[in-house]
Amino acid sequence: MYDFDELVDRRESYSLKWxxxxxxxxxxxxxxDFKTAPEIRAAIEKRAIHGIFxxxxxxxxxxxxxQFWWKEFHNAEIRKDWMVYSSGVxxxxxxxxxxxxxxxxxxxxxxxxxxxxxNSIINNGRNALExxxxxxxxxxxxxxxxxxxxxxxxxxxxxxxxxPHNPVGKVWDRDTLARIxxxxxxxxxxxxxxxxxxDLTAPGKEYVPFVNVSENCRxxxxxxxxxxxxxxxxxxxxxxxxVPNPVLRHRLWRGINTDEVGEPxxxxxxxxxxxxxxxRLWLEALREYIQENKKYVCHFLDSELKQxxxxxxxxxxxxxxxxxxxxxxxxxxxxxxxxxTGLYIMDxxxxxxxxxxxxxMNVACPRSLVQDGMERLKTAVLxxxxxxx
Length: 389
Known about the structure:
40% helix, seven-stranded mixed β-sheet, Aspartate Aminotransferase, domain 1, alpha/beta, Aspartate Aminotransferase, domain 2
């Protein structure tokens, strides 16, 4: 029904991902090499034909589309008056950091974690307090003793949570989220939960919205949602903050509007409504396709390249590769990989010191590109193994 094997030439389209040399294969930044759902393209085309692209309001239909999607797809209730429009998840994170903390305070993050969290914290004069995840036998978990120590620090004012967790692919369960919520409430630490990857769990694997876990979670949190990752719409810059606590919501609303990131562009509203109202069949097919790509990589590594292994296939279209068995420095290998084969993937150190020794690879692309990428990876690993001995 949907052709995810289609190769779409993204060069010369001002694509950040594909702004690379001709021989290079980019599998780094988190956007997909698939055309978005036909229903979304039709909505955008209809808006474009109108021909006038002036200032745009946020209509009731936008709120209702989010409410419909979270009820139908995630069995979660979202009230209209909880929602605030933002031009993106990271703009909203940065606004929250600026408005709800003060310079010099700590913003806690569970590392390895999405690199832009560091930018939002450090660029605003706050301290990035890293609480490394516990990693054992290919499984990540939270060290709650360490987490409580970090939260108990009077300088810690906010926690940025990634749910599901980018880059490790972890879907946090309800009990884990409840413990986080209780500890943050106990120590008066606001939770900002980035849930942009929530629609990209493996088929049959469901995420738990932080706001629905408990009263502590609901009253002490900001949840950030968007159609942009799941439907490949990052360039349209659209997101929503869900904030049940009215005092917290007002403060965030003030921050977003002070930072001028509260106005939609002319296409953002129509695309969001189409995604959440009409995109479910496309998304379900996409998730199946991505899962098969992940299985291909797992099988390839197991049979052809035992120097690496996939940590999780539960969420996101990003694979976190454990390179413990790789000879030599992983950071030097990333550079060697790109120079020698043209394969461009991310060094795990970009996600905090806890990411040292890992790689992040995007497999949201036609399977022929995944196959090409794995062959390039194999070639580089075998050559690097000889060089490093």
